Structure formats: C-alpha cells, structure tokens
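USER:
I would value a second opinion on how I read folds in token form. Give me a protein, with the fold worked out from its sequence. Write it directly below this note and I will take it from there.

ASSISTANT:
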Amino acid sequence: MSEKNLLRAGEQLHFRNGKLALHDFHAALGARFTSVNGAEAVSGYGDVSREHNAIATSSGLIDLSFRSRICLTGSDRARFLHGQVTNEVRALRPGEGCYAALITAKGRMQSDFNIYCLQDELLLDFEPGLTAAVSERLEKYVIADDVQIVDVAPHYGLLSAQGPQATALVIALGLTAELPANPFGFVKITDSILGELYLMNRARVGTSGFDLFIPTSALSAMADKLSAAAKSSGAIFCGWEAFETSRIEAGIPRFSADMDESNIRWKPAWKMARLVLAKGVTSGRKLSRAFARTARCPGFCVAFASTINGNPFRSKVTSCSKVKKRSAILRARYSHRGSIQTSPWVTCAKR
C-alpha cells in the first residue's frame, strides 16, 4: 500500500457520489442498501435468514468497504502510535497485526482499530464515519515526529469472508498458497491483474474469517472472482443485517454500537458474556429482573431480541433498581437462527 500504489489507484474513488464502488454489482444481486454511520452499506439481498445461516454454517461474503481506513507512514509511526493506543504496536513486525483502542488521557475510548504492520506503513481499519475525528485526534499529537496520516479508503476496498468455511473459500480463489495462520496475521499478494492485495486473518463473527484489502480499480474483478469461488464452497453474498446479528450472537462488541466513551470495558480479552433466558420471558421488566438475578457483576450492558408469532418483537426495557445505576440497554437484535427464534436472548458486556 505504498504511496506510489496509492497514487496509481487514486484515479478511482472508493465512494462515487456517496455510493459504494460496487454499488451496481450489489444492486444486480438484488441488494437493499442502508447507511452505517453515514456510509452506504448493503443491508441485505432479500433473504436475511438465508444469509444469516450461510455465515453460521458455511461462509458469507460481506462488502466492508464502507469502513474507515488510514495509513501511518514515516520513520516514527510505530513509536508514535504505540503511545496513543492500548496495545504493543512497537512489537509488531511486517505481516503481523493486533487489536487496540484509541483512548484519551482519562482513559475514555474514542475508537478501536485493527492495526496491521505493513512494510512501510501501519494500516488502521476502524468504524465508518470516524476518519476525520481519528485523523484530527492523531494529528494533534504529531509534533516533532516523522509521521504522516493518509486516508486510504478512497484507494482500497475491503471484502470479507466470514464463517466456518471461509478458509476453503479463500483457498478456492487461488491467490496464494500461504494463508495467514495467526489472528491479525496477513500476507501481501502481488497479482498481475488485481495488483497489490493484502489478505488478513480476521475473524469478525467468532468462527473463521479473512479480510481482503483490494485496490479500488480491481474491486469488480475480485467480486467476480469471489462469486465464482463461492459456487464451489456454498458461500453467498451477505448484508449488514445478517452480519450484525451473527456478530452479536458471537458476543463480539462493536464500537459506536455496543461501546463508546462511557463504557470502555475491563478485560483485555474484550469478550462479551452471553445469557440465554428461559422461553417466554418477553416483557422488559421480566427481562431486567432475570438479568439482575443472573448478572451479579456490576456494569453490564444488555441487548436482547425475541419473537411473537414468528415476528420480531422489541420491548422497552425498564431497568429495575438492582441494575438501573450500573447498566444500559444498548442493542436489540432479532435472530434468524431457528433454535433461537422462539426465545429471547441477551448479550452482556462489562462496562
């Protein structure tokens, strides 16, 4: 992702008129679109239940190109970023990565990053709509450091394969014989047609997963290649709704949705506990009381969903006195998985 390659790829913008670069490709598949933090994303392709099942049992292809991406260049980039985030950036070697949070001097969370150590840059992948705020926050502390901050989202797209059969799907692409084995590990691939690609081991829904960072000019060709590989592995393109449901079911929190400046979590593992309640508990008050009896550790955040006659149902949760001062209701999400459809479920995250 060198500056030379960025300039070469810069002839085409990732977003055209506010749309995804692959908007027409997705539309031809019957996609419905939504907005995530102001960025266009695919909501689904008409059958969320099928998409959700694909992510759970085989693999789903998700266009995550709407996410923010910046690169830090300059000789002081590792030392500088190390002092801004919560993980050991200086220890990273090319081909390695880590997860970290950007925090204030008072420990308030401002963003979370997937950080990858490229040969001459540090690539930061994070939530959409935060590029300006994160860049401004980092630039504020660049004083005498040799650090440059470059927005690379216009030049590189992000396509992701998630699910237990994601490895088979990536192998079917035939791009490389070497798959990154460790979480956040990655390999650089140079293809005569597609250009300079990066394949990251990044499981986003708790099973197996890989991210592909692709030059914008090659996104259409890669989408076609993924479609062909999907036919042999049982994968399908999936939208944001199915992806989000799978993420929450796996107990994986997302910044700006399940955590923000007010509820940075304790444990470095950053895991969410999950509580599945008894069938038939549908009222918000009963849900809160059941949660209060089960979750004895202070500072939990709750998300739940249930159904009535097979239809999504969301009730307003009125926290009882036992949890009112230590919890917040963050997310309601309907699960399309058959085994859960008749029961409410809860995900909990320590604050």
Q: What stands out?
A: Residues 136 and 149 are 10 Å apart (CA to CA). The chain has a mean pLDDT of 78. Residues 3-244 form a domain with the Gyrase A; domain 2 fold (CATH 3.30.1360.120).
